[in-house]
């Protein structure tokens, strides 16, 4: 059953510079609960408390909003800094101890999955029937695999001997998050702390000799 989202009242006095954030935040809530296909521009405008034309002038049509929402959820803010250059991602890559590096990776996956997991679930569902959503999904998957491969290569360099090759490690991490996070945290009721500890332990046992 769909979760209802209480709409905010129209706010005529918002500052022009606030509109993009309001629209993206509203779209994030609606995409995460109603789904992408079931959410209209009118829904986003009502949830954001802005006029319908403001949605287009502030961000753009729905596919553009979707890309902005996904990017913002993955990174945690709207700063124009790729995840690969974020301090928290570099920390996991550059950590010399492979055990600690995997712990930092698990932390990062929990943060990303907590912010973006539900909207990514909605995106994946929409991608099966909507070409524009499919483009956003394919872009996300490509970027994700590039980032995971960077981590796998760095892990091999710091640990010396791994139990699997880089492609297998990349595929394993790609399979687990955010999907496992959603299944165990959102669906099975695990705490984030429990999932993070489980993921770190699992990957250490799988990858490290």
Key terms:
Tetracycline Repressor, domain 2, single chain, 209 residues, Arc Repressor Mutant, subunit A
Structure at a glance:
By secondary structure, the protein is mainly α. The chain contains 10 helices and no strands. α1 (19-33) crosses α6 (98-127) and α6 (98-127) runs antiparallel to α7 (131-159).
The low-pLDDT segments are: 1-5
Proportion of strand residues: under 5%
SSE succession: HHHHHHHHHH
Structural shape: elongated
Reported for the largest beta sheet, the result is:
none
If helices are DSSP runs of H or I spanning 4 or more residues, what is the number of helices?
A: 10
Tell me the CATH architecture of the largest domain. Answer: Orthogonal Bundle
Given helix and strand content, the structural type is: mainly alpha
CATH topology of the largest domain: Tetracycline Repressor, domain 2
State the helical fraction.
over 70%
Radius of gyration: 19 Å
> In CATH's first tier, which class of the largest domain applies?
Mainly Alpha
Count every beta strand, where a strand is a DSSP E run of 2 or more residues: 0
Distance between the termini: 45 Å
- Count of the domains: 2
Mean pLDDT: 92
Protein model, in words:
With 209 residues, the chain is an all-alpha fold. It has two domains: 16-60, Arc Repressor Mutant, subunit A, CATH 1.10.10; 78-207, Orthogonal Bundle (Tetracycline Repressor, domain 2), CATH 1.10.357. Helices cover 70% and strands 0% of the residues. It has ten helices and no strands. The protein has helices at 19-33, 41-48, 52-58, 62-75, 87-94, 98-127, 131-159, 166-176, 179-187, 192-207. α1 crosses α4 (62-75). The longest helix has 30 residues, at 98-127.
